């Protein structure tokens, strides 16, 4: 059985760990799914991926700048490995192995690398590596910490460290000079109303602690090291109405930054309580960091977006892959995944409520967001309250990629207020000149007070069929512009059909092989009805008449999906799948599948059906089914096929590539088991090689040595063969010249003859070699003259 590996499609999740800024403020580092992204600040593009060869895709737990070399990045893995990378060249310099499970990494310039870890007895400790080199052993500072440290920070002097417990009830201050721990329990005196601490930061240069609380207040502690006073001096900053999620100081400590669920970055002038704001950032802010030169700040948001914000609080760059759905109502990606061939993009719900995101099919990068509802997201008054917002529930693109249709609905728990239950059907037309969609028609309550269930375009006509809980199939037709009557072009419903007053749901068009007629299938609860178009002209309006019904005995098992191919109709009920013959209406077979997502390959006869923890690839042509099992399949909510650049050895994926969405994890796809782990990863149209420079040079050296041995043993080569050999040698020399000396392989990998050629001879050796060469040339000349005379005679 062919094994398939599940991999992330495009840029993965970036919100799990805080971003890191390089010392020269040129790069931003983020931890993704099993790798670290290096982003260029000026352009917002991805320079490369590093630390990609980790076996465990969730192994990376933190990163820090090398305290001894600011051009190197230390990446910690959970299994105890610390990889030292030259991030500009993408070269792995060396690896440090610690016999503990790593939890967190922090570095202080000229003071060492601080490593929080956990041993086999679940005891937490703090270690310090003063000098990062090949063979170095950590120094244990605290062999037993009282709890799992969270919200860790250090001052720039390397004297104190700070962390809090996971409950937010205790603050721990580490004296790194005396190796002592001072504990502050949250009481009514030092923090009013017994508020829970959500985040904490220590001032880089002064004696001050900043604490974010559950109520939205920021508490500043001063003089907490003064032993004469029992309690520290306290002041408050209050703007946030919801809990403070993250805090950070600027590099010199002149500013304090706070953020939370309000989607606003607040910049406080230290000691003056003067806030300035960067509002409407789209989603809750999870992490914030400041560059060393204080020219920009980095914020990580719950929709998987990273903003680079200038010192004037304007957005400079936006980084990110797929916008994650951070609201519970959006988690299932209700509008699904659709292919927009004009821009080679995927269209789906955005992490911003009321937006659609267009994502590149080539590299998985976010292209842009399209505002559909025209509303700003407003956070709730209480974190436990449900947020009221309008979101896109359905979308569809016509076969020519000219029309985009969206259905939006306002989410609420109440079903009584018509305003809160507002529903709109919008028709958008693509303008090829401006390269964007323009609104053409907006229809309020397309199916009365009931919701719309599904939409589908006619394969050959400019018609749209919709179903809803009102029990009707509605056919929407485009009305052309009439300059005489001054009628503008618009969409309107000209016909509607119902069956037994049942709720209509799934839709499907099918064409029989015996005729050119296009029929419409629609499900009404557990029944599937067939409607024949009596007017089959492409330019005329369709007129449907009821023809037949495919019945199922259980009314409590409604139809959720329909699909037709090769004169067969696939009917997906809630707990089983039936296959019908469209020609004679006979039942073919049934499968005990609970399908919760499916996708049809437009370039083959296969259809992918996700059934609990199984994925079935069913072929309409031969009736064969290929199945795979994974626990991730149970959480899939949407799927789609895209063109496959490289043909797969797995038969169902030879013509197209299957991508699917998993909430909180993003888009996933498949890769063959025989593909190399160090494969080429497309980022921004460039291909980055994952192999290290040292191994590459060693392989080049060995290859050149083998080529020289083969050429010396064989007969003389032709001019083309010698040219190719010289090109390889020149390529090897260029690699040596462009690689720093400390990154070159060890001396035992070089050929002895090559080393001799690199040595500079002395003056005596040069004169002796010149004399010997002169004598040899005279001998050759004399020999040649004698031979030539003999031949002439």
From TrEMBL:
Region (Disordered) location: 769-793
Write out the GO biological process terms. Answer: positive regulation of rRNA processing; positive regulation of transcription by RNA polymerase I; rRNA processing
What Gene Ontology molecular function terms does this protein carry? RNA binding
List where Polar residues composition bias occurs: 772-786
A GO-annotated cellular component: small-subunit processome
Subcellular localization(s) per the UniProt record: Nucleus, Nucleolus
The protein, known as: WD repeat-containing protein 75 second beta-propeller domain-containing protein
């Amino acid at each position: 059985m062919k094994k398939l590996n599940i991999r992330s499609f495009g840029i993965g999740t970036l919100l799990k760990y805080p971003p890191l800024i390089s010392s020269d403020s040129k790069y931003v580092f983020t931890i993704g799914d099993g790798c670290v992204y290096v982003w260029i600040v000026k352009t917002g593009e991805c320079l490369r991926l590093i630390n990609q060869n980790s076996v465990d895709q969730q192994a990376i737990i933190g990163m820090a700048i090398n305290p001894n070399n600011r051009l190197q990045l230390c990446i910690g893995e959970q299994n105890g490995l610390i990889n030292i990378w030259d991030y500009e060249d993408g070269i792995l310099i060396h690896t440090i192995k610690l016999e503990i499970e790593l939890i967190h990494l922090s570095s202080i310039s000229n003071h060492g690398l601080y490593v929080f870890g956990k041993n086999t007895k679940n005891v937490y400790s703090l270690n310090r590596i003063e000098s990062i080199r090949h063979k170095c052993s950590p120094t244990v500072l605290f062999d037993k910490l009282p709890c799992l440290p969270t919200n860790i920070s250090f001052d720039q002097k390397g004297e104190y460290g700070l962390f809090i417990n996971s409950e937010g009830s205790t603050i721990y201050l580490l004296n790194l000079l005396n190796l002592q721990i001072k504990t502050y329990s949250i009481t009514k005196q030092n923090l009013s109303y017994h508020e829970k601490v959500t985040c904490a930061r220590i001032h880089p240069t002064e004696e001050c602690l900043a604490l974010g609380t559950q109520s939205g207040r920021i508490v500043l502690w001063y003089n907490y090291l003064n032993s004469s006073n029992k309690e520290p001096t306290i002041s408050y900053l209050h703007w946030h109405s919801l809990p403070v999620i993250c805090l950070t100081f600027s590099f010199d400590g002149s500013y304090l930054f706070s953020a939370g669920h309000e989607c606003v970055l607040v910049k406080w002038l230290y000691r003056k309580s003067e806030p300035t704001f960067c509002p409407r950032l789209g989603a809750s802010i999870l992490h914030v960091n400041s560059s060393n030169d204080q020219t920009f700040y980095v914020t990580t948001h719950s929709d998987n977006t990273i903003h680079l914000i200038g010192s004037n609080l304007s957005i400079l760059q936006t980084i990110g892959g797929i916008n994650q759905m951070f609201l519970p109502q959006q988690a299932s990606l209700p509008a699904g995944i659709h292919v927009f061939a004009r821009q080679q993009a995927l269209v789906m719900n955005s992490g911003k409520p009321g937006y659609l995101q267009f994502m590149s099919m080539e590299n998985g990068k976010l292209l842009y967001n399209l505002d559909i509802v025209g509303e700003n997201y407003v956070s709730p008054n209480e974190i436990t309250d449900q947020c009221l917002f309008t979101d896109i529930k359905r979308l569809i693109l016509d076969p020519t990629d000219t029309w985009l249709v969206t259905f939006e609905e306002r989410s609420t728990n109440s079903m009584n207020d018509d305003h809160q239950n507002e529903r709109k059907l919008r028709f958008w037309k693509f303008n090829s000149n401006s390269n964007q969609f323009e609104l053409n028609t907006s229809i309020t309550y397309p199916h009365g007070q009931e919701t719309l269930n599904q939409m589908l375009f006619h394969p050959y006509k400019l018609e749209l069929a919709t179903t809803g809980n009102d029990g009707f199939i509605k056919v929407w037709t485009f009305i052309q512009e009439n300059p005489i009557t001054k009628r503008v072009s618009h969409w309107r419903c000209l016909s509607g059909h119902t069956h037994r007053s049942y709720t209509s749901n799934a839709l499907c068009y099918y064409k029989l092989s015996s005729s050119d007629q296009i029929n419409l299938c629609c499900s009404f609860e557990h029944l599937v009805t067939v409607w024949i178009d009596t007017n089959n002209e492409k330019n005329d309006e369709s007129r449907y008449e009821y023809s037949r019904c495919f019945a199922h005995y259980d009314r409590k098992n409604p139809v959720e999906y329909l699909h037709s191919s090769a004169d067969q109709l696939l009917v997906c009920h809630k707990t089983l799948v039936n296959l019908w013959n469209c020609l004679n209406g006979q039942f073919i077979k049934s499968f005990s599948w609970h399908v919760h997502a499916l996708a049809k390959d437009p370039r083959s006869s296969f259809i992918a059906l996700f059934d609990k923890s199984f994925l079935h690839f069913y072929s309409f042509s031969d009736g064969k089914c290929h199945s795979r099992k994974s626990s991730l399949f149970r959480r899939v909510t949407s799927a789609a096929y895209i063109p496959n650049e490289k043909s797969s050895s797995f038969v169902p994926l030879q013509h197209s590539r299957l991508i699917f969405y998993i909430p909180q994890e993003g888009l996933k796809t498949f890769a063959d088991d025989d593909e190399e782990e160090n494969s080429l990863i497309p980022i921004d149209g460039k291909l980055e090689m994952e192999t290290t420079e040292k191994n590459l040079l060693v392989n080049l050296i060995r290859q050149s040595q083998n080529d020289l041995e083969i050429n010396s043993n064989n007969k003389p080569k032709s001019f083309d063969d010698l040219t190719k050999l010289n090109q390889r040698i020149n390529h090897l020399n260029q690699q040596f010249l462009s690689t720093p000396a400390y990154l070159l392989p060890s001396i035992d990998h070089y050929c002895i003859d090559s080393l001799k050629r690199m040595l500079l001879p002395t003056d005596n050796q040069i004169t002796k070699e010149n004399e010997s060469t002169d004598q040899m040339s005279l001998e050759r000349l004399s020999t040649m003259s004698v031979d030539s005379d003999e031949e002439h005679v």
